[in-house]
């Protein structure tokens, strides 16, 4: 997102000057986690992430470092102690037409592990407000908040969260009869091999060469032993629907809701999120057997430098879906 942004400096940005005055002001003070660090929450997190590190189990368990923000979240009822500066800042942006928001990135620093029974406290400040930026989404400001997490007086970690608050850009009108294009996946150095395999109609799973554990999505290191060396195995393509949701809203260009998005458990034991096809959305059920296929979208043309888009999807097998295919 920020790679697509450019600064717009100038004396005319009076709003930017007003926003800058909020830097360093408190967004929340003396917040308290709603729960002590506890084994059930750690277990649920590890099950969701597929993390089997033994350090996260037993009476001497520590919490996975990436859970840092989870202990500070207020849930549906929120927290007391929220300072007015955060709301004032957002009100100014709303009044200026920056009514849309998108999260762009977060950074975490871990100073010591959280242990069972720790009571978490935190303070949040508005760390920075960028100059006015223009992105593909629209024009607005990047706002970064910093949350310092403590146990007693000890700083145990820091969480920075950055959002773009912006006025939506006017959408380019597509010619009549032109179908909107799908968004391209974000390809980086950690997952490039996966997408290269998809282009060849291969679904590649990472395998740790130290302990042999398979993992998906692709990661730079093994979440079982911490090993950094890996190779790949090609998935057979067989799997079952482990869980699913039916998307009704919000509508996205190039998609026709309602449609089913499944968490597919592959025969190899790892899980992948993809579309479930071959049956009406209301016929998808947990446990249905599916088979991998690759679909091609977006025929290349002069406006499409990336060429056609290939994505893995999963088709429900007819013999378990009442003959609907």
Strand count, sense and barrel status of the largest sheet are: 7 strands, antiparallel
How many helices in DSSP terms?
A: 4
**Overall residue-averaged pLDDT value:** 87
CATH H-tier superfamily of the largest domain: Hotdog Thioesterase
Element-level helix/strand string = EHEHHEEEEEHEEEEEEEE
Secondary structure category: mainly beta
The low-confidence runs, each spanning 5 or more residues with pLDDT under 50, are 1-7
Gyration radius over CA: 23 Å
The CATH first-level class of the largest domain comes to Alpha Beta
Any overview of this molecule?
This protein has about 325 residues and is mainly β. The protein has three domains: about 1-170, Thiol Ester Dehydrase, Chain A (Roll); about 190-235, no CATH class; about 235-325, OB fold (Dihydrolipoamide Acetyltransferase, E2P) (Beta Barrel). About 10% of the residues lie in helices and about 35% in strands. It is built from four helices and 15 strands. Strands 1, 2, 3, 4, 5, 6 and 7 form a seven-stranded antiparallel β-sheet that branches. Strands 11-12-13-15-14 form a five-stranded mixed β-barrel. The longest helix has 12 residues, at about 85-95. It is globular and about 60 Å long. The two termini are about 40 Å apart. Residues about 1-5 have low confidence and may be disordered.
Write a brief caption for the model.
The protein is mainly beta and 325 residues long. It has four helices and 15 strands.
Layout of secondary structure:
Layout lengths: L5 E2 L6 H7 L5 E7 L6 H11 L34 H12 L4 E11 L9 E10 L3 E2 L3 E14 L2 E15 L23 H8 L4 E5 L5 E2 L14 E5 L3 E10 L11 E8 L4 E7 L11 E9 L11 E8 L9
């Amino acid at each position: 997102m920020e790679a697509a942004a450019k600064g717009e400096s100038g004396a005319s940005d009076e709003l930017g000057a007003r926003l800058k005055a909020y830097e360093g002001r408190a967004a929340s003070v003396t917040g308290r986690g709603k729960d002590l660090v506890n084994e059930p929450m750690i277990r649920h997190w590890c099950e969701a992430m597929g993390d089997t590190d033994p350090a996260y189990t037993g009476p001497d368990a520590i919490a996975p470092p990436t859970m840092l923000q989870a202990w500070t979240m207020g849930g549906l009822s929120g927290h007391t102690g929220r300072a007015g500066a955060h709301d004032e800042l957002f009100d100014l942006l709303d009044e200026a037409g920056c009514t849309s928001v998108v999260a762009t990135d977060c950074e975490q620093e871990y100073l010591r592990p959280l242990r069972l029974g720790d009571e978490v406290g935190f303070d949040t400040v508005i760390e920075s407000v960028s100059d006015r930026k223009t992105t593909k989404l629209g024009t607005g400001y990047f706002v970064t908040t910093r949350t310092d997490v403590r146990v007693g007086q000890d700083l145990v970690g820091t969480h920075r969260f950055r959002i773009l608050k912006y006025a939506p850009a006017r959408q380019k009108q597509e010619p009549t009869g032109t179908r909107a294009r799908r968004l391209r996946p974000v390809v980086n150095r950690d997952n490039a091999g996966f997408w290269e395999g998809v282009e060849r109609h291969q679904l590649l799973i990472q395998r740790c060469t130290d302990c042999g554990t398979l993992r998906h999505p692709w990661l730079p290191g093994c979440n079982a032993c911490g090993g950094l060396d890996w190779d790949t195995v090609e998935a057979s393509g067989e799997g079952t629907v482990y869980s699913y949701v039916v998307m009704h809203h919000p509508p996205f260009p190039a998609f026709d809701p309602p449609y089913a998005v499944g968490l597919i458990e592959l025969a190899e034991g790892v899980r992948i999120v993809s579309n479930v096809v071959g049956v009406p959305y209301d016929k998808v059920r947990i446990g249905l057997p599916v088979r991998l296929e690759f679909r091609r979208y977006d025929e290349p043309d002069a406006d499409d430098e990336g060429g056609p888009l290939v994505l893995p999807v999963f088709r429900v097998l007819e013999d378990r879906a009442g003959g609907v295919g």
